[in-house]
Amino acid sequence: MRFVSVRDLRGKSAQIWKRLAQLKEMVITSNGKPIAIISATSEDTLEESLSAIRAARAMAAVEAMQLKSVETEKDRISLEEINTEIQAERKARSK
Predict the structure, then answer these.
(1) Is 5 within 8 Å of 30 (Cβ atoms)?
(2) Alpha helices in 1-95, H assignment, sequence order
(3) What's the pLDDT tens digit per position in 42-58?
(4) pTM of the predicted model over 0.90
């Protein structure tokens, strides 16, 4: 995986875009820390690429929620307790 700084992206963008076509993906960094991923695509594959990214993010979010529920011991609550929590949250949001 190739890492590219924000500074290089601004100053050498033409070179980076050409290189992206070969590498297919790069990580953009700011102050040495990753902040974004750029991925090569085309008109033909754009929707598929976006769908794959969104699916991966959704799966990561579900996994994070599952881990948090285990850590907070909420993974063992009953359906009745879940419905009570949902009703309380909906009531709080409607105010």
Answers:
(1) yes
(2) 6-11, 13-23, 46-71, 79-94
(3) 999 999 999 999 999 99
(4) no
